[in-house]
């Protein structure tokens, strides 16, 4: 997918019918669109190897999660738990790392990822947790709150992130501070304070070492509500940035729709 992405102009103009170039690259990779659909790709760059048409997006997620699973299984679990804020245990199921992602408990075992004692079939949950475990980030929090655009190679995500995450939260809870606080509590958020001046700040642990700070400014007579989501700058040591962006968007979906 990255090879295809490199051949695109990365302007996220949307003329291909897909909001971002990275999403377009994924569709080309999955044989759902042809690269010629982007009017800015040169003839030379059209010579991209496309995969077999039978591969669906779900097949690709499953393939990536299987590859990462194979790698994560060979990680030293005791070390990985220590490095990632997970809880290491040994029991009848052998070595286990227990951790919580977005307020939901998971167990990483040598057979793979488990949820409620059942093998997890959510490819994206597996991709994110396997990547998190195999990286063994082991970096203390810096205390620097940064937006997604701070991390390398995220420029193309920034607009879509504002639209799909921050603006969605702001409009869902415009003039509804009470509802916002209730939703934060439901999802295990902890009211906190930080360097930002905001009407309300809440911390969520997306993963044990990946806190997300939701800062909310309520509407007044002049302006509608606004929202900013911050991460600790240490996050890139723990997870691939593409997966991080997806994790935050998934959190927002959960935050707004459940
Ligand atoms: S891939 Fe789509 S979004 Fe990206 S430049 Fe081409 S038409 Fe625009």
Describe the structure.
The protein has 258 residues and is α+β, with helices and mostly antiparallel strands. The protein has three domains: 2-46, Electron transport complex subunit B, putative Fe-S cluster (3-methyladenine DNA Glycosylase II, Chain A, domain 3, Orthogonal Bundle); 57-135, no CATH class; 145-257, TATA-Binding Protein (2-Layer Sandwich), CATH 3.30.310. Helices cover 38% and strands 20% of the residues. The chain has eight helices and ten strands. It has helices spanning 2-6, 21-29, 57-73, 77-84, 123-135, 155-172, 177-186, 241-257, and strands at residues 87-91, 94-101, 104-109, 112-115, 118-119, 145-146, 190-191, 200-207, 210-217, 226-232. Strands 1-2-3-4-5 form a five-stranded antiparallel sheet. α3 (57-73) runs parallel beside α5 (123-135) and α6 (155-172) runs parallel beside α8. The two termini are 32 Å apart. The mean pLDDT is 87. The structure holds iron/sulfur cluster. Iron/sulfur cluster binds at residues 8-9, 11-16, 18, 21, 24, 38, 40. It holds the Pfam family FeS. This is 4Fe-4S domain-containing protein. InterPro entries: 4Fe-4S_dom, ACDS_complex_subunit, Dihydropteroate_synth-like_sf, DUF3786.
Give the strand content.
Answer: 15-25%
CATH class annotation of the largest domain: Alpha Beta
Radius of gyration: 20 Å
Which strand order do you get reading across the main beta sheet? 1-2-3-4-5
Low-confidence stretches: none
Order of helices and strands: HHHHEEEEEHEHHEEEEH
Query: What count of domains describes the coordinates?
Result: 3
Please count the beta strands (DSSP E, at least 2 residues each).
Answer: 10
The termini sit apart by 32 Å
Can you summarize the main beta sheet? 5 strands, antiparallel
Task: Examine the secondary-structure arrangement and name the CATH architecture of the largest domain.
Answer: 2-Layer Sandwich
DSSP helix count? Answer: 8
General form: globular
**Ions and ligands:** iron/sulfur cluster
CATH topology of the largest domain: TATA-Binding Protein
What share of the residues lie within helices? Answer: 25-40%
Mean pLDDT: 87
Summing up helix and strand content along with how strands pair, one would put the structural category as alpha+beta
Organism: Candidatus Brocadia carolinensis
Keywords: 4Fe-4S, Iron, Iron-sulfur, Metal-binding
Pfam families: DUF3786, FeS
GO molecular function, one term: metal ion binding
């Amino acid at each position: 997918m990255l090879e295809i992405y490199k051949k695109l102009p990365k302007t996220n103009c949307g003329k291909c019918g897909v909001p971002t170039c990275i999403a377009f690259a994924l569709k080309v990779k999955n044989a759902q669109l042809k690269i010629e659909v982007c009017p800015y790709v040169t003839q030379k760059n059209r010579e991209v190897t496309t995969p077999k048409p039978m591969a669906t997006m779900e097949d690709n997620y499953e393939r990536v999660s299987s590859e990462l699973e194979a790698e994560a299984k060979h990680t030293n679990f005791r070390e990985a738990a220590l490095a990632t804020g997970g809880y290491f245990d040994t029991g009848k199921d052998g070595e286990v790392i227990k951790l919580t992602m977005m307020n939901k408990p998971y167990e990483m075992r040598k057979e793979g990822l488990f949820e409620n004692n059942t093998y997890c079939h959510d490819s994206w949950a597996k991709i994110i947790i396997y990547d998190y475990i195999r990286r063994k980030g082991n970096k203390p929090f810096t205390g620097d709150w940064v937006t997604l655009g701070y991390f390398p190679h995220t420029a193309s995500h920034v607009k879509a992130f504002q639209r799909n995450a921050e603006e969605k939260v702001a409009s869902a809870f415009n003039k509804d501070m009470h509802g916002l606080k209730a939703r934060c509590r439901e999802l295990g958020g902890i009211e906190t304070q930080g360097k930002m001046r905001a009407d309300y700040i809440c911390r969520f642990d997306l993963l044990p070492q990946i806190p997300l700070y939701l800062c909310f400014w309520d509407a007044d007579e002049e302006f509608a509500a606004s929202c900013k989501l911050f991460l600790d700058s240490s996050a890139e040591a723990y997870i691939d940035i593409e997966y991080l962006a997806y994790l935050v968007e998934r959190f927002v979906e959960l935050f707004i729709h459940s």
